[in-house]
## 1
Amino acid sequence: MNAKPHRNTIFVEDATVLSHQAHDAGQYILRVQAPRCAAHAEPGSFVHLSCDPMLPLRRPLSIMRVDPEAGWVEFLYKAVGYGTGLLARRAKGDTISLMGPIGRPFAPHPQRRRPLLIGGGVGIPPMVFLADRLRRQPDYSPFAILGSEVPFPFRAKPSQIMLSGVPEGVIAAMPLLEDWGIPSRLASLRGYAGCHEGYVTDLARHWLDGLSAEARAEVEIFACGPHPMLAAVASLARDFDLPAQVSLEEYMACAVGGCAGCTVRVNTPEGPAMKRVCVDGPVFDAAMVAFGH
Ligand SMILES: Cc1cc2nc3c(=O)[nH]c(=O)nc-3n(C[C@H](O)[C@H](O)[C@H](O)COP(=O)(O)OP(=O)(O)OC[C@H]3O[C@@H](n4cnc5c(N)ncnc54)[C@H](O)[C@@H]3O)c2cc1C
Ligand code: FES
């Protein structure tokens, strides 16, 4: 996997909608034909897409899956406002202008063979993409914890992959990851069957507590989700002295580094600095992000 940003490999493509499925709570899974984006995307990359020809400002969405051979790119998004509401109306066969892939992707450390993937809500997509890449590298043994406070956009199934450190009865898993042989567990405060009733980070703590010191030293955390969740992930990483990479979301206008509309405060060895989420991120070292600002 490549940690470099992709500013010289951002393409604008007229992507054809291949499928567009509606799920509970205004969630959608959209698959489009966009071969150049599919060929260059890395886990953590996002696209800036035109939700409707009448809406000038594009909206950013993380990439959930790609098939470079078939040339498609898939997204999971929630219709929360005007832009994503218009996007939800696009049908199979429509054309969507897509700019991407954009951003600095996740960069798993070669010696940290137990990646812990934590995705919350519409932060799940980059974790699925990362899991897809990691499963092709047999040295890694990833574990994914996914959380949602609305029904998951897939039918959870009891996992056949046993894990130590996970509370008894927490067996709900994402079928796609299960099919890939990657253990996953789901968390929610909503009391969904088989899910951990609590936060994703509580479940992560249980799992980390159950590991030997040797195994724990091989863990690296990757996360995407709402800011409070990412702040909790940063604190979890600090408590266990583990490296963590988090993918941030900010309002974006240009998404190519030109407008400085997406800056966040980070702490660098030289002191506080403002970084652009679109091109300096969206993936950052959790220890650097000033979550309170
Ligand atoms: C790098 C990146 C990746 C993203 N990936 C996904 C994804 O995979 N799936 C997904 O559903 N969403 C994702 N988002 C968020 C998505 O871009 C916004 O929900 C979308 O732009 C909202 O546009 P809108 O016109 O529908 O809503 P608006 O009318 O602009 O806003 C509606 C609501 O969404 C909130 N909102 C809007 N934009 C953001 C933002 N950037 N960050 C936090 N809150 C916001 C507003 O506070 C408001 O409550 C991502 C954002 C970024 C920056
Ligand atoms: S959105 Fe313009 S610099 Fe990031």
## 2
Amino acid sequence: MKPTIEGETNVLSCRFGRGAADGLGKEIGRFIVTTMEIPWNLSKDRIGGTAEKVVHCQTMEIDWVDRELASLPSFDTVLAVGGGQAIDLGKYFAWKTGKRLVSVPTILSVDAFVTPASAIRKNHQVEYVGVASPDPLVIDYDLLRLAPNELNIAGVGDLLSNHTACKDWEIAHAVGKSEFPFKPESIDIGRDILKKIMDHTDDIRQCTDEGLQAIVDGYMRLNTVCLPNGHYRIEEGSEHYLFYELEERLGRPFIHGWIVGLGVYCMSRLQDNHGDEVTDFMKRVGLKYDPQVMEIKRDDLRAALLNLKAFVESRPKLWYTVINEKPIEPTWVDTILAGLVF
Ligand SMILES: [Zn+2]
């Protein structure tokens, strides 16, 4: 199946539907698997075949990843099965070895399965490296529904981020600080992607075929903008930067869509950008964003918000956002904390 979305995407071919992953392991030659324990146990009998090696992703820290790469047997295909890190590890191996990549997301909590670069970590700092495109991308609604609904609903997070990221780009442009040629038409599409997601609120909350596909389509459409532009400015901004700060501070991963949801909660308010409306949507669709579900303590979030400006200013690669533009005062932080559950 050709990608269902018009325009350039990172996806070379698609296999979407109920049972789409069934028997896959017998069709892709000699293969290695990048995965984690839970997704692999849920999917290996459906996928079938015999892997040359199954690599359970422990971390995306580059030292560990490169050691695993050096110990791979010979193979034809990298089969990436799981959530963001398992997919990122598969992309990294496919890029480094030049082999075919087949991606089977088992949750939709992050957009890793449609983006070309692999998110690795160096001393807990994220870096995007390489290019790898799934052939095919396998979206098996039945397999996805084996995961808790809340993890698929988390997929909305990286689309909701358009809300704050588009605004950040406008803020940067208004003060002559945009790192890229400003494209209002890209922002229009970014906002339309989010509107279409909001139109599917009930389907997404219930994880129907249509709801799951709406998330995948949103991601793929995002790429038709971001790949030609050469950057993800409409999808990534201040909401992700709060996540980077927290990840570095606490030294542990999060469910991506949830932590981005928390970022959207905080940064939409710093932007004076319809904070109550996006919060209402997160509640209706079932996207978790409260610190309590991610075991983030009040004092840690307070410290992260108060440090956020210094954090982004110490990282010249991060784009100009509302964090650079507006002061983050202790009284504002207290107001934000008061609206969240710890
Ligand atoms: Zn993201």
